[in-house]
């Protein structure tokens, strides 16, 4: 399967872009969605979190208190390291399984930490959705209803913009309106169809 990695900093509009690709029938494997389900009620990961932090890490219904845990790991970097060591292997396993099951002409691996977590090694090509820092801060604060200080913490936890761009084979600028994205995605979709078909033909010739 030919895999396109899609990433972007928080507030970049990465999901809007992958939704446009999905409208062409392209399967999107979203690392954020997989990560959320890793912590479903009854899961080994959630049980480990409860054992470490107690019931304060849970909602009244027994599900994960994501806001509490997010604040905890931002305040204590060692706890973030512990959580990553717990969840990253589980997330990778699920991502690989879903990528292998995809039945579209190519498949997208969408991950905000694609570069940081070395998920680029599963990708044939990398697309970065890029916005200016000012746009990033404005959109994140408005969408997530969080303070400017927390927005800065989130941005610092991700790879610097320059590092993401250095890993890119293609870049979509999303500082403008959503209508500006449509022609960019349409052009890239055709390019990826051609690349995936060429890769498949090459593989067949070698087998």
Automatic annotation (TrEMBL):
| Classification via SUPFAM superfamilies | P-loop containing nucleoside triphosphate hydrolases
- Can you name this protein? Dephospho-CoA kinase
Q: Which Gene3D superfamilies match?
A: P-loop containing nucleotide triphosphate hydrolases
Entry's EC annotation: 2.7.1.24
Any one GO CC term of this protein is: cytoplasm
The principal localisation class reads cytoplasm
- Write out the similarity annotation: Belongs to the CoaE family.
Q: What's in the keyword line of the UniProt record? A: ATP-binding, Coenzyme A biosynthesis, Cytoplasm, Kinase, Nucleotide-binding, Transferase
Q: What class of enzyme is it?
A: transferase
């Amino acid at each position: 399967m030919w895999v396109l990695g899609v990433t972007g900093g928080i507030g970049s509009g990465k999901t809007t872009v992958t939704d446009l690709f999905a409208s062409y029938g392209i399967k999107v494997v979203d690392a954020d969605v997989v990560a959320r389900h890793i912590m479903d009620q009854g899961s080994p990961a959630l049980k480990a979190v409860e054992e470490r932090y107690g019931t304060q890490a849970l909602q009244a219904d027994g599900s994960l208190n994501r806001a509490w845990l997010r604040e905890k790991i931002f305040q204590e970097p060692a706890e973030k390291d512990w959580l990553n060591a717990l969840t990253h292997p589980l997330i990778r396993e699920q991502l690989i399984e879903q990528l292998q099951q995809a039945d579209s002409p190519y498949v997208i691996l969408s991950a905000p930490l694609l570069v940081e977590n070395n998920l680029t090694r599963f990708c044939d090509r990398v697309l970065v959705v890029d916005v200016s820092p000012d746009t990033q801060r404005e959109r994140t604060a408005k969408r997530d209803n969080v303070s400017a200080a927390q927005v800065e913490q989130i941005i610092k936890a991700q790879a610097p913009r320059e590092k993401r761009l250095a890993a890119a084979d293609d870049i979509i600028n999303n500082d403008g309106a959503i209508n500006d994205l449509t022609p960019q995605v349409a052009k890239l979709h055709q390019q990826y169809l051609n690349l995936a078909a060429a890769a498949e033909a090459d593989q067949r010739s070698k087998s």
